[in-house]
Amino acid sequence: MTRLIDPSLHKLSFIMSEMGDMVIESISLAIDSYLTGTNTKDQVLKLSDSIRVKYYEVEDLTFDMLLKYQPVADDFRLIRSSTEISYAFSRFGRYAYDITLVRDLFGDVSECTNASLVESTKKVKHMIKEAVLSFAELDIRKAIEIREDEKFIDRIYRERLPKLIESTNTRCALAEALLLRYLERIGDHAVFMSDAINYIVTGKHRPTDERIASHTKTEHDSSSNPN
Q1: What is the per-residue pLDDT across 184-209, written as a single tens digit (0 to 9) for each?
Q2: Phi, psi angles (nearest 5°) of residue 123
């Protein structure tokens, strides 16, 4: 039986899905433009602005649902977390634009050693896609992968900074330090988003690995049990 709140929840899911697609596109455009020397600043700015508009749309819709429908616990956790996740989406869009500004300021950086950035950007793209997919499917098992990716990005950030300080190529060092910082912040927001998804599913913002494993086992057992 369709409830009065269901059409609004479907609309919320649709907006969040649109935001997720735009976030993946904006981050990929920004990172690739830096590494390949292409200019995508205007394109990424347009995406970032659109994501922010949808963030306000989510806020208005969730407030409307809270006032009109008095959602039950499961719905309330989804509504509340959607606001937090849409904010994380808006931050992703802004960081993507900031990355294009670095490329714009420093110009072609193909002469620089970008090995650490290439590795970090692979992880960031993977994190974003996993976080968006995790929300779409409410699959908290992806949280483990997202946390591992974040540890990888943090480790590169910590290891590269001391080397950049000693670098004689100031231009390359500054550009790489800025990019690594933005990637590290994007990683933090992906983990924050993952925690919000955990809250929707389990009622806990950051369940232990054992709780996640337990959830995985329960789901596997239920899928293998015809009853």
Answers
A1: 999 998 988 888 888 888 888 765 66
A2: -65, -40
In contact, 81 and 73? CB cutoff 8 Å: no
- CA atoms of 115 and 67, how far apart (whole Å): 51
70: left (phi over 0), alpha (psi -120 to 50) or beta: left
Instruction: Identify the burial level of 60 via C-beta atoms within 10 angstroms of its C-beta, where 0-12 means exposed, 13-18 middle and 19 or more buried.
Output: exposed
Chain-centre distance for alpha carbon 217: 26
CA dist 108 and 35 (Å) reads 9
Buried b / exposed e across 168-190, counting CB within 10 Å, b at 16+? eeeebbebbbbbbebbbbbbebb
Encoded amino acid at 192, one letter? F
Q: Alpha-carbon distance 118 to 129, whole Å?
A: 17
pLDDT tens readout for residues 61-78: 999 999 999 888 889 999
The one-letter amino acid at 191: V
| Predicted model pTM | 0.84
